[in-house]
Amino acid sequence: MIYYMLLILPVVLAQDQQHTTESLSTKHHQQQQLSHSNAIMGEAGVSNSQLMQPSTPARTLRPLTAGAGGDPSLYDAPDDCHFMPAAGLDQPEIALTCNLRTVNSEFDTTNFSVIPAEHTIALHILCNDEIMAKSRLEAQSFAHLVRLQQLSIQYCKLGRLGRQVLDGLEQLRNLTLRTHNILWPALNFEIEADAFSVTRRLERLDLSSNNIWSLPDNIFCTLSELSALNMSENRLQDVNELGFRDRSKEPTNGSTESTSTTESAKKSSSSSTSCSLDLEYLDVSHNDFVVLPANGFGTLRRLRVLSVNNNGISMIADKALSGLKNLQILNLSSNKIVALPTELFAEQAKIIQEVYLQNNSISVLNPQLFSNLDQLQALDLSMNQITSTWIDKNTFVGLIRLVLLNLSHNKLTKLEPEIFSDLYTLQILNLRHNQLENIAADTFAPMNNLHTLLLSHNKLKYLDAYALNGLYVLSLLSLDNNALIGVHPDAFRNCSALQDLNLNGNQLKTVPLALRNMRHLRTVDLGENMITVMEDSAFKGLGNLYGLRLIGNYLENITMHTFRDLPNLQILNLARNRIAVVEPGAFEMTSSIQAVRLDGNELNDINGLFSNMPSLLWLNISDNRLESFDYGHVPSTLQWLDLHKNRLSSLSNRFGLDSELKLQTLDVSFNQLQRIGPSSIPNSIELLFLNDNLITTVDPDTFMHKTNLTRVDLYANQITTLDIKSLRILPVWEHRALPEFYIGGNPFTCDCNIDWLQKINHITSRQYPRIMDLETIYCKLLNNRERAYIPLIEAEPKHFLCTYKTHCFAVCHCCEFDACDCEMTCPTNCTCFHDQTWSTNIVECSGAAYSEMPRRVPMDTSELYIDGNNFVELAGHSFLGRKNLAVLYANNSNVAHIYNTTFSGLKRLLILHLEDNHIISLEGNEFHNLENLRELYLQSNKIASIANGSFQMLRKLEVLRLDGNRLMHFEVWQLSANPYLVEISLADNQWSCECGYLARFRNYLGQSSEKIIDASRVSCIYNNATSVLREKNGTKCTLRDGVAHYMHTNEIEGLLPLLLVATCAFVAFFGLIFGLFCYRHELKIWAHSTNCLMNFCYKSPRFVDQLDKERPNDAYFAYSLQDEHFVNQILAQTLENDIGYRLCLHYRDVNINAYITDALIEAAESAKQFVLVLSKNFLYNEWSRFEYKSALHELVKRRKRVVFILYGDLPQRDIDMDMRHYLRTSTCIEWDDKKFWQKLRLALPLPNGRGNNNKRVVSGCLSGRTPSVNMYATSHEYQAGNGGVIPPPSARYADCGSNNYATINECAAAGGGRGYKPIPTSASAAAAACKFNTMNQLSKKQQRDLSVAGMAKTLEHQHHHNHQANRRSQHEYAVPSYLPSAAPAYDSVDYAKQQIRNNANCECVNLGTAKRAAGKNPASGLPSSFSSNFVPPGGASYNCKKSCSCIGDDELLCSCGGGGGIGVNLLESGTQSSVTMSSSSNNSRQPELTHYESNLSLNDDEDEDHDQQKNLWA
What we know:
The chain is α/β, with parallel strands linked by helices. It is 16% helix and 15% strand. It contains 24 helices and 71 strands. The chain has a 28-stranded mixed β-sheet, with no helix packed on it. A 9-stranded mixed β-sheet has the order 46-49-50-51-53-55-57-59-60, with no helix packed on it. It is a single-pass type I membrane protein. Belongs to the Toll-like receptor family. It comes from Drosophila melanogaster.
């Protein structure tokens, strides 16, 4: 690379002056690109400061090919991009990488035409993943890159791939589009049809991580050369959307097709053309597939690798892998599979090589599922629910090439000897984490090539002599974490090649005899057992043993001959035992040992144990009881030594080995070291851990000759002061980093010897380490009454103090005389401090028992503390000459008198403390000399009088404390003359209550309330009665003659009883309001549960809307398809059957083929209340669709009443602004609320007619149904063909019982692909079977009798054409008026008067609470689209138990009844359609019923076929 750069540098320098920035598109475009003439990304009204600009290297020019004149042409990369050679340095092809913020978004405009087209064969576009802005690819964006072979676009938040985006890329071989929209759930990625029509030569296509929900039909058909397709990490829900389903194998029968399914048939035929692709690799993992249907990948004849892992697949069809003739690797891991079909690998038996089924819920394993897969090499069944019942001799029969078998994390309890009879090629067998209790003899005998056997984490108790027979090449045996209490001495006799043996985590008490003479053993793990003693011959014959682990046992001593038979032992682990004695020389018998662990034992001395072990490199003796240590105890070759958590008080080096040792890492933390010096640490040390000791002293030059030092831990010790020489090291070269020291957590003292530590990291000379935790270091202040500790980095020079007794400056010449002002002598019983510059001089004489001012206080004293003494007075001129004194503490010293000259000369005094003394009065001139005083503390004295003007000269006074004295008439308003006063304290005095004085006092309190910190406690005293001055009522003052007078009228006392009553009433009223507010929800529920109150309320005009009276349904429920079970089986079951509501459910009752917005609005308008079940599934699926949002907006405008049921956890970040607005303005009920049902009933209107509990009016929901297949159906419609024949129930269930292991059998496929269908043994199941047969036969009869061609119409459509005149006067939800004359009206049928018809061939059993009812007139039936959802009062359903005999053509209409009762049976079928679908616990039957009942509709021409209709409904 360096040679290449040197080669092109002269060319670039020579042509850089002549090169002009130009784009390779058109000249007109060049003129438009001003500031971005050679940049892909241009900004659209956004500055660089608004969005983070991606790193854009400078434009690079590269010589490519030499022109005619010999000058090579240059490759001009855009400013946003950088390039690399695509094939080699000598090839002209270029791979270009561009880092953009976005592509054609609101922030940027993108121009790809500036990319040179001549040599660019690979283009990689990377957007900024942190910017959530929608990008866009324009049509023909890359049309000029005709030579482009590889295109990659990642992290660009694209929403659509248009059909012309890839125009011009005919040579494209590799395409990667990863928008990572999965991180932005609201943004889906859509691909238009024919988007890949131009790129027909595409070989690899990666569309992963795009949040794709659906794909156009046959989108990949044009890619005939495609070999690898990646669709992982999307939101695909149907395998058929990939377009690889082989529809040629699906059974079709044209004679059975209904005319009502013409539209569905056309739609199916349009997509039935299968694509013949040569795909070899397909990855559809991390999607939302639930079912793997038959022939789903049937067209991929050459597919070798199929990855469907990490989906939600729970059912797999019998022929799910049909057509995959070349499939070699199948990954179905991390799904919800419970069982697998028997013939799943029927077509791949001779080709499949790897099958991965781990992390599922497989509990049923067909014995023939994997049999005779003679090419299978790897089978992973781990992390399932497989028991020993499903594994027998036929499970793995014929797997003659299997190499890896993983059965770990299952529930196996035993292994039969014949299970592995054909696995003689198996090399790795994993049985970990099962429940095996024993291993039978010769279980593994057939596996002659097995080299790894994992049996850990089972319940094995004993290993007998024949359990491992036949394992001659076994090298790794893992038996750890079992319950082994013993091993037979001959257990390993056939495992002569065993190298690694794990027996840890068992209950062994001795070293097993079976280990002897295992000459190939390399490692043995006996840790975590109960071994107490080791015999001298325990390891006899283990001459090649490399590692021995005995951690966590109960060993107490090690003898000299314990390890004598282990000459090649290198690693020995004896940690966490109870070893107290080790005989000297015990480890010397193994000359090659390199690492020894003895931590966690009870050793108190190691002298003579390791000194003669020249090969020892690693030694851990931590957590023992060592009290002494010398470097002579370990060999000089030792490199790693751990001594932490012992009782060492010093590190001795009696033999001076600090230069001979090769120790690199030393850990002596958590000991009792008190001092370290240069000899305590070897010179070769690199890492030194001395933390958590008792170190107080670090000698100078301790680290001087440690040239390899990189880190030292000295934190959490007892270091108070540190000399700068203690951390000095030899100069470090520039190319090496300075050593890192950690010294925090020590009780440093801020003395004058440690001020250097604050600036050590800024020292330019490389002779001092870098303190890494300087910000965490605190130091203790020597003399500071405000704070004890301060962060070191915040300390000022005045905080670094040192003590002194006597000091004489160099310029002072009178120190030898007694009277010398420049001599600094600390008074007796005092402590004196100074800083480095002597600008701070502190004299501390507190509590020194002085009775008068101490003599010889230094003249330069800046702070004087004489508090706590026994002064009677402070005489005049006591502080004369101390002109630098700034702080004076004379408090608590029994001072009774101060004079005018006491503080003479203290011009610089700032703080004066005289509190807690016995001062009686202030005469007026005591503080006149203190013109700079800031704070004056006189509280807690006996001051009774203060002369006027005492504080007048204190112009800079800020704090004045006078509380706790005996003041009575001090004119406090004089303090207004002190402009800087911000804190005054006046409480706890004996202020006078005289009216004249008190008035002015109160006035001052009002004006200075912010300054007086104790104004609330200031009070006056009269006749031993205290009255607070700040109180507004009742404060007394006294006249001169002693007559008491209130400052406010006393008439208020007469009103006290009235005030008391008013107060009680006020409190009671607001208590009632507060109680009503707190229990408002409970009161609403109580009122709702009281029938009389609710009847009264809902009968009033305010509660009943006239329009709601005409709405046939009580509530319409919108919800997510994935929450259908919750809505149908819980909400609807309770509201419809138990309470009596009439509900319209979206996925059960609404016409799903109509436009979603119109269908949703129409269904909601048919109900009195709109209810939306809001869950995570609804947010990610339905709410992300525009139709749902627009419908909800329209409903809110019309109704303005929405009830939200919050179901499950709702991610707040995924709730958009519209939904948040609705949640704030609507009624929300949480499913987890313990009063959920009460609140829901309170939110819903009263049900229409409590007697008709199961009666549901669905004219606005079902009237528009078409016979098309439900687009929202999950797994129920995969196997159902359009218009397929439904065999009789007996035939279907007979087929179901033929195969006990099939997941989806043939009868289930014919009936709708429903999965497990048990034989109907219960009454409800038999009734459902009877109902399906009746409806199917009726549909056939209708197809045969009705001769009019065309599409079948619904009741509403027919009513529109035939009864236009009656439509105006008829309500939109009324029963259609064009029914046959004999048919009763919907609301006029009197079921109590209907006769019950019984047939001798059918015995009907009442499954409900009401009796069976049928019509009198056999011809009085209802149309199918109406009667299929009509329920008679009482909600009864019926079950026909006896078989019916039918003759001739009438058998098509023969049901569970005879004679003229056909109309009754039809009505019963409709009744069961409603009752069973809403109340049966088997909710999966609903899509089938929906499919068949949609076929029961009338023909267009009613007049022409009137007689046929009568016959039909007779």
